[in-house]
Hints:
Blueprint: E1 8-12, E2 18-25, E3 30-36, E4 39-45, E5 51-58, E6 62-63, H1 67-74, E7 86-96, E8 101-110, E9 113-126, E10 130-139, E11 158-168
Antiparallel strand pairs: 1-4, 1-11, 2-3, 2-11, 3-6, 4-5, 5-7, 7-8, 8-9, 9-10, 10-11
Amino acid sequence: MTVAVQTGLWKLDAGASTVALKQKTMWNLVTVKGVFTAVTGGGEVGPDGSATGALTIDVASLDTKNPKRDAHLRGADFFDVDNHPEITFVVRTAELGADATVQVSGQLTVRGISRPESFTARLTQADADAVTLDAEFSVDRAEFGIGWNQLGMMRGLTVVTATLRFTRTAA
């Protein structure tokens, strides 16, 4: 796919976007999956085609289809929503490659701890008024102060997947 994304301001279409996570637990016998249902964001594409922007996730919107587990994940053992209600990802650079890949570099902040994060996204749809990106990357929970691991049940990295649709804002 060869595209030239229009310069200007873009807004996340929350209704057409998803941010999810999955984590192996119970000694790798069970995979816990969850979706953040409240995500906002936007960005700007510059004249050179590079992009910057930010995503904000309402941590309390995490839904794993298990209310008791969701309450625990929102608590101090994990996301500590009372003190850190949002996860943010600030995009410092996003560069479109010839093969519809997008090299994304930025800063991920979870529980008030910020770390650099880079990954490759895939541009799956693009026209003059909308673009859609798919991405998947892994995060080490411990780097963000989420070390709860009763009886060694939770090992390995948390996988974050996202489908993000952005629409062009009126000039």
